[in-house]
Design brief:
Blueprint: H1 8-14, E1 29-36, H2 43-61, E2 70-77, H3 82-95, E3 101-102, H4 107-120, E4 124-125, E5 143-144, H5 150-165, E6 170-175, H6 178-192, E7 198-204, H7 212-218, E8 225-229, H8 232-244, E9 250-253, H9 259-265, E10 273-277, H10 288-303, H11 315-333, H12 340-347, E11 353-355, E12 358-360, E13 374-377, H13 379-389
Parallel strand pairs: 1-2, 3-4, 4-5, 6-7, 6-8, 8-9, 9-10
Antiparallel strand pairs: 10-13, 11-12
Helix pairs in contact: 2-10, 2-11, 3-4, 5-6, 8-9
Length: 391
């Protein structure tokens, strides 16, 4: 039985799927779908995320799958375009050939795809988005989140800067879509907790790096801190321009901006940059989950005969790997009764799901299983912090 009233509606919606042959399930295989950005400006994020997910599925398939069924993934490219994500969701709903969708990328794309899948009774698990409106379990009972929300990331960043760096003049430049506006809303709420407000804001269009005009507007506000609400490419463009112009902002970035990709695009490694992350460091081999991830990525790379795919120990690949391991754990929980209804029940069921030394847990009536946030600071910002603390 589903644990909370918000999920009863979806249970009824899923009832027609309870047939002898559940969608996407056969005696030989369990098939999942994915709408993901594997072209366009978010291509690298989508490919890294997808590579970690496939590494987890390959790892399990090498051991015979789950209950004798191999795990398959049908991935459709949405190019980080909402209308294409919606079209992909409609394709999966019409073909009715997958158990669930896993591993979507982006807030604007998920906003368009999630209602289509909800109406079709298809679960959607582990999207790369921390938007709070997608964590409304009554509105989206088919969504299962494995990462902390943007509001949790933003709050951690603001709290740290106010308490340890003593800064009070905050501004923001953000992507003008559901993703960026979600960050703006979270930023305002976090600052209000310190009786502060956003002193200046500017926006830029999705899928563009045309950020110059917005940054020039912000210059007039004499800011201490600039929150950047964008993907890796746009964030790098903003940081590079701000450094070129000699702005002394502390610049804050959320995990979704792809820290490794961001660092490669920066003209110089210096700068007062603070980034939030929602997972352990993908290169921290002291963590069991990280060691498992790295082994799986190396094994997958070794299988590529042409050598064109190299293992990427990135945060996004680690997130994809954890998603794959979570999906496997949920399938094991079903005890072989693999239907959409049972899959969603077990994904949101009480009790921890442990993946090596990583765990997720869903509280009753919620659809998110992690609140973990950690922060990383650039060397320059750490030195600045150390100077402030000296007597």
């Amino acid at each position: 039985m589903l644990r909370a009233a918000p999920f009863l509606a979806l249970a009824l919606l899923l009832a027609p799927s309870l047939s002898a042959a559940a969608p996407g399930v056969s005696a030989e295989a369990v098939v999942f779908g994915q709408t993901v950005s594997i072209s366009g400006p978010a291509r690298r994020a989508g490919l890294l995320f997808q590579s970690g997910l496939n590494a987890a599925l390959d790892e399990r398939n090498a051991r015979g799958g789950v209950g004798g069924r191999v795990l398959k993934l049908i991935s459709l490219d949405d190019g980080y375009e909402p209308q294409r994500a919606a079209a992909n969701a409609k394709r999966f709903a019409a073909e009715n050939d997958v158990l669930a969708l896993i591993g979507g990328t982006g807030t604007p794309t998920t906003k368009r795809a999630a209602p289509v899948l909800r109406n079709a009774g298809i679960p959607l698990v582990g999207v790369l988005s921390g938007a709070d409106f997608l964590r409304d379990a009554k509105r989206y009972p088919n969504l299962v989140h494995l990462r902390a929300s943007y509001s949790q990331e933003v709050r951690a960043l603001v709290d740290h800067i106010v308490r340890y760096h003593g800064k009070k003049r905050f501004g923001i430049i953000y992507q003008d879509d559901a993703f960026g506006r979600s960050i703006l809303k979270s930023y305002r709420a976090a600052l209000a907790g310190h009786k502060l407000r956003v002193l200046a804001k500017a926006s830029f269009s999705r899928n563009t790096h045309a950020v110059h005009a917005g940054l020039f507007v912000l210059q007039k506000a004499d800011l201490d801190v600039l929150m950047i609400g964008g993907t890796g490419g746009a964030s790098a463009e903003i940081i590079n321009l701000a450094n070129d112009l000699g702005y002394g902002y502390i610049m804050t970035i959320l995990s979704i901006a792809q820290s490794e990709s961001l660092r490669r695009r920066l003209k110089a490694p210096s700068g007062k940059i603070m980034m939030s992350e929602v997972l352990p460091d993908a290169n921290d081999a002291s963590r069991k989950i990280v060691r498992s991830f790295q082994r799986a990525m190396l094994a997958r790379a070794k299988e590529k005969r042409d050598g064109s795919v190299q293992p990427a120990f990135s945060q996004l690949s680690l997130e994809g790997y954890i998603l794959g391991r979570f999906v496997i754990a949920v399938l094991e929980r079903t005890g072989g009764e693999v239907t959409r209804k049972r899959f969603l029940q077990e994904a949101l069921a009480a009790g921890e799901i442990r993946i090596d030394d990583w765990a997720v847990e869903f509280k009753p009536g919620t659809n998110f299983g992690s609140k973990y946030v950690r922060m990383t600071e650039s060397r320059e910002l750490r030195r600045f912090h150390e100077r402030r603390r000296r007597p």
